[in-house]
Design goal:
The structure holds two protein chains of two kinds. Chain A is an all-alpha fold. Helix content of chain A is 75%, strand content 0%. Chain A is built from nine helices and no strands. Chain B contains nine helices and 21 strands. The mean pLDDT of chain B is 88. The chains are: A mainly alpha, B alpha+beta.
């Protein structure tokens, strides 16, 4: 939508989406706390209507990660959509494909390597998320503790260096698996696109 | 069958104002230098560019009429477009590319197997576009456009990105396409050999304006158009094979009453073909010469004499019953023969100077 449509308020939406990328994560977390807290405008509605509480829960941690990850993914997906040859979309148009049809069958497949990279970068950002999560969902082991939070906690406790080292290894392994996977899928996709 | 086209559009630096109507479409070629407005016309016909004013109608179907507030978007227009850079979808096989338009169009007369046969792409169906040669890619792109069951086929310099050999490979397919399908084709090019081979009607564009429009044989042989200033200027005539003289190794062709002898052709009697007679090869004579090697001595009248821009020569347009011949001579020759418009003259054409351009 941000790449292909021109509508009033587009720049504002664009800025809003990208805000978490530029403000300190703690600010984002605090903002979430205000909006989605039990007494916050969105949080109280969620609690009253659906009985869902986000603050200090796993779901809350996921939301914080999602908000932090979103701009990164948007950027990379947008770049890859921008890179799709508009001529091919025109060709699809003259062959009778409407805009949704064109998007699913031409634009998205051609942008797929970039969308994949967006996903991987998002995954990496998620893994490393610290500030927004600790502010919004706290640091509850087994519930809202992300890897960096666990490592941080381990380092705070006396004699936690071994645990921190183990956790760091896990982090490295997860990141490596993600990168290799993206490399492999990316190569397959590019081969399919004949690049 | 008519194709009528009218377009006015103001760009920041130029204005395009093009209008033409061709009664028997076949292949209508838009010919002119770059920047003349050819590609704008194609984009408007396809619906990819919405101009200030336009009206496009094919066989009574109005595709766009801005005055009446009618504008069909490209996806609902059913106008096939073949781009210069084939624009095949790289993530699909040739077969999937071909079926892209077919699956989205209402059932029509164009069948998958027929198109594959016509364009000779049967062996390529499972290949990916990036493994094809330029010529193959262009053939697939033509097939893809045809299978979308269009009312009108647009071709925007489809051979411009190909080398001479690839061009020669595709031209026969295009002539076949034109004779097999009953489909109006609007073809844009700036290469005159494509005009000679394919055009039925010719629209000459220059700086956003139509400077001439009509059947190929009439427009090609007009001495007053920029076409006549080209080194390869000459008449283009549509002919029919009427007789073979195997003993003399000659074939007789007829073009609306005018007969030409050419070296023996390998074509059946009744076959149609087009011939090109370069202006520099046509000799003019006041009296029939005796004992001369020239096979074709054609009595005609001078219609127009135009000063050529180059080489101190003069172009003489000679009226034939169904077209005209062009002859490039010196102004001295004009004076010696006393040629003026309306004067009778004999045009002498060597059989070997007549270029037969296939069907």
């Amino acid at each position: 939508m941000l790449t292909r449509c021109r509508f009033p308020g587009r720049s504002l939406l664009n800025a809003l989406v990208h805000l978490p990328l530029v403000v300190p994560p703690v600010v984002t977390g605090w903002f979430l706390l205000i909006v989605f807290g039990i007494r916050g405008p969105a949080g109280s509605l969620l609690l009253d209507w659906f009985g869902v509480r986000l603050v200090f829960t796993t779901a809350g941690a996921s939301l914080a990660c999602a908000v932090m990850t979103f701009p990164v993914m948007v950027r990379s997906i947008r770049l890859s959509l921008d890179a799709v040859d508009r001529g091919l979309e025109q060709a699809a148009r003259t062959l009778g494909a409407g805009w949704l049809d064109r998007f699913w069958n031409v634009t998205l497949p051609l942008a797929s390597p970039g969308v994949l990279v967006g996903g991987i970068v998002g995954y990496a950002t998620c893994l490393g998320e610290f500030g927004a999560v600790i502010t919004f969902a706290a640091n509850i082991p087994g519930q809202t503790q992300t890897l960096p939070l666990a490592i941080y906690s381990a380092l705070q406790a006396p004699g936690g260096e071994t645990k921190a080292a183990e956790l760091s290894l896990v982090a490295i392994a997860l990141a490596l698996v993600g990168l290799l996977l993206s490399e492999w899928v990316g190569r397959r996709l590019n081969a399919m696109l004949g690049r | 069958m008519t194709l009528s086209f009218q377009l006015t559009h103001r760009f920041p630096t130029t204005t395009i104002d093009v209008a033409f109507e061709v009664p028997e479409p076949g292949v209508t070629v838009l010919f002119g230098p770059s920047g003349a407005g050819k590609s704008t016309a194609i984009a408007v016909a396809a619906g990819l560019l919405r101009p200030d004013r336009c009206r496009v109608a094919v066989n009574g179907t109005v595709l766009a009429d801005t005055d009446a507030g009618r504008w069909l978007p490209p996806e609902r227009r059913r106008v096939g477009l073949v781009f210069q850079d084939s624009r095949l979808f790289p993530h699909m096989t040739v077969a999937t590319n071909l079926r892209f338009g077919l699956r989205r169009a209402p059932p029509g007369p164009v069948r998958f197997d027929d198109v594959v046969d016509l364009l000779g792409i049967g062996a390529l169906l499972e290949r990916r576009p990036h493994t094809l040669s330029g010529g193959e890619r262009q053939r697939v792109a033509i097939g893809r456009a045809l299978l979308a069951q269009p009312h009108l086929l647009l071709m925007d310099e489809p051979l411009a990105s190909l080398d001479t050999a690839r061009k020669a490979e595709i031209l026969p397919y295009l002539t076949r396409l034109k004779t097999t399908l009953n489909l109006p084709i609007l073809y844009v090019t700036h290469a005159f050999d494509e005009v000679a081979r394919l055009a039925d009607s010719l629209v000459l564009l220059e700086a956003g304006k139509v400077i001439a429009c009509g059947p190929l044989s009439e427009v090609a042989a007009r001495a007053d158009l920029p076409l006549a200033g080209r080194d390869d200027a000459g008449a283009l005539l549509l002919c029919e094979v009427v007789a073979h003289d195997t003993q003399r190794e000659l074939t007789r062709l007829e073009s609306s009453g005018t007969r030409f002898w050419v070296p023996l052709l390998d074509q059946p009697i009744g076959a149609s073909c087009r011939i090109r007679i370069p202006a520099r090869e046509v000799i003019l004579a006041g009296r029939a010469p005796e004992l001369i090697s020239v096979q074709n001595v054609i009595p005609a009248t001078v219609r127009r004499i135009a000063e050529a821009t180059r080489r101190h020569s003069v172009l003489v347009e000679i009226a034939l019953p169904g077209g005209a011949l062009l002859s490039r001579v010196t102004s001295d020759a004009i004076a010696r023969l006393g040629l003026v418009p309306g004067a009778s003259v004999l045009a002498l054409v060597k059989s070997t100077s007549i270029e037969v351009l296939g069907i």
